[in-house]
Every structure is written in structure tokens, then in C-alpha cells.
Automatic annotation (TrEMBL):
Keywords: Coiled coil. Residues 10-69 form a coiled coil. It comes from Dorea phocaeensis. This is Uncharacterized protein. The lineage of its organism: Bacteria, Bacillati, Bacillota, Clostridia, Lachnospirales.
Amino acid sequence: MADKEEIKTLEELEEKGKILREYKEKFRQMCQENKMIKGSTVLKLYDKIEEVQREYEHLDNKLTLMEYNFI
């Protein structure tokens, strides 16, 4: 049972990491382009990045705890 939970958590962690990289790349592209960007757009994207980062860290901590409990 623990193996399935660990695999599921690892898959969720990978998915959150992918989403986080996509948001960061979008943010980087927006900042590098020479066009006007509304501040609210930047703040919304930044909030999404922070939210996914928190989810990623939570999953990473959960996975680490599972590994310690396994040992």
C-alpha cells in the first residue's frame, strides 16, 4: 500500500513540477518581450507560481516523510 501511495505522490510531484516550469517559462517570456503587460496579469501569474510551488513543496515533504518511514 505504501508503494502505491509513494508512486502516486511521486507522479503528482512530477506533474506539479511540470506545471511550475510552464508557468515560470510563461512569466519569463512575458518579462522578456518588449510590450506592455498589465500589472494585474503579472501578479496573477506570480500568484499561480507561488501556489504551485507550495503544492510542490508539500508533495516533496510528504514523499520525504514516506521515505523516512520506510527505512
